[in-house]
Structure formats: C-alpha cells, structure tokens
Amino acid sequence: MTKKKPLTDKQKRFIDEYMVDYNATQAAIRAGYSEKTARYQASQNLTKLNIQAEIKRRQEALSEKLEYTADDWTRDVLELKNRSMEEIELKDEDGNVVHTETKDPQTAHKCLDMLGKRLGLFVEKKQVEVNISDRSSWLNEVLKEVKDE
User: Fold this and answer.
1) How far is C-alpha 136 from the chain's CA centre?
2) For the chain, N or C: smaller number of CB within 10 Å?
C-alpha cells in the first residue's frame, strides 16, 4: 500500500483558492505560482490524487453543511430553465394573440449553458501560440517551478 503524500503549504493554498471559484489557473496564481506557469501547475495539481481527494473531501463537507447537493443544484437549474422558456402571448387591444415569445431567453440560455457544462457536453478548445525562441526559456521556468514543489 502506498503512503499518502502530505500536501505542501502551496498545494493547500491552491486548494483553498480553487474552492473559491473552481478556476484552477487563477487559484494557482493566487496561491503563489508564477503567472507564466500557473495553467500548467494548476493542471498538474488537479491530476495529483492527494489534491483530488482533499478537494472532494471539502466539496462533500460543504454540501453536507449547506444541505445542498449537486442533484439539488441540477434540479433547481432545470426548474429555472423551464420557467424561463415558458411562452408569453402578446395580445392586441381586442385580446387577439399577435405574437408569442419566450419569457426570459437570456436566463434560459445561461441555464442550458450551465447544464451542458455540468454534463460534460462541451469541449473547450484554446489556441496557444508559443514563440519558438521563447519556448526553451518557458520550459526551463516550468521545470524550475516543478522542482520547487
């Protein structure tokens, strides 16, 4: 059986910051990682089993404290989406329907977006440009940052 590696102070700060907004790159920056390597460090941190376990433990504790689960959140977002997508009939002076429109299309769109992300329906792609002459210095900085952990 492998021994669980204790979290470093920097990793604990990363987890604290990650729990604020679940933005790993920003959490890494706020935890003290270099802005140049924050995305890489965040990605590396999120693959470490001891960090994953601590994040999961904290999420479960928070859910228990709030008595609000991911299923509750999903149900509430679905309910909000359904209410937002109700049709409103616009009538003329005589009471004849002249137009129908969605009650709150912006909220419905936001709910659909959140649900799609929650269900993993979207793959976010980012294009990164690296100047070849800068690549070796960037790689050296990343390696130095990894060694410092």
Assistant:
1) 30
2) N
- What residue ranges define each of the domains in the chain, with the CATH number in brackets? 1-67 (1.10.10.1400), 69-123 (no CATH)
Q: What is the pTM of this model?
A: 0.53
pLDDT in tens, the chain (149 residues): 456 789 999 999 999 999 999 999 999 999 999 999 999 999 999 999 999 999 999 999 988 888 888 899 999 999 999 999 999 999 999 999 998 999 999 999 999 999 988 888 887 676 666 566 666 676 777 777 776 65
Do residues 52 and 46 touch, judged by C-beta distance below 8 A?
Answer: yes
Taking the C-alpha atoms of residue 147 and residue 141, their distance in angstroms, rounded to an integer, is 10
The b/e string for 67-103 (b: 16+ C-beta within 10 A; e otherwise) is eeeeeeeeeebeebbeebbeeeeeeeeeeeeeeeeee
